[in-house]
User: Fold these one by one.
Assistant:
Number 1:
Amino acid sequence: MLRRLLALTIVALASALPVIAAPDAPTKTSPHKIVVFDFDLIDDSQEGEMNGIRTDETQRLVLISQELRRLLKADGRYEPVDLAPVAAEIERLRPMYKCNGCEDALARKLGVDYVMIGTVQKVSNLILNLNLFIRDVNAEKITRGMSSDIRSNSDDSWMHGVRYVVKNQLLADKQPGQQ
């Protein structure tokens, strides 16, 4: 009987104490949604002046654009958004590096705060530069720039260039709006 009375007293006292909630379980921060435009080619080479854009280079632009999105998604800090709703506008406005802020309007239509623009600048068939820029849509300015030199005009060298920039610059402890 005494045990039962003691148990009831403990229950009564415990119910009178304020409830202390356990802290929420740690959650992974949600990734930054980002518009990732396909890379554009800036061909400053004599070959480009004479022959125009090469089919293999056009295919490489698609290849590295897909790889960039894959790497961002795999890392989890960024979530590239679907560009289909604004695809016609993108084609009309290309190249994106020349549109003078028009990418902000496209990003707003998609409900996104950050835009990534990529270029491959071809100086010659041996010297190319891969560049990535992150633009903060709300601030209406580029907040980060990254670059890698490529010393060969091949699928492997372009892929190596985009992987290098992502691993060693973009994802090296930086977030979209950081310098």
Note: The domain at 31-170 is CATH 3.40.50.10610 (Rossmann fold).
Number 2:
Amino acid sequence: MGKFLVKKAKGGVMFNLVAGNGEVIATSEIYKTLASCKKGIASVQKNAASGIEDLTEKGKEISNPKFQVYKDKKGQFRFRLKAANGQIIAVGEAYKEKEACVNGIASIKKNAPKAAIEEAK
């Protein structure tokens, strides 16, 4: 089972969603307070079931909340989760293959809704 690991960061607090195998699935922005970080976690949990918009292929745009798959400047696949208001609430790492990127999204969908919140010491 996955967990949200909350930790201090330069300028505030952030979280990583970590899968049961210890791999980081997604990372948050840096929040100023622990309370706002926990609201960000709640938003990921709420929006984890969102659809996927693939920006690497021509297709229809879907409304927020949504996951977006895209290519970064180095040509690697990444994803971001956008809340209903369009704000990015979590981002994934870089993947060489799109299938691996989509598997990262599937892991969020599986792990985030019931993931425990753990604060790093």
Note: The mean pLDDT is 94.
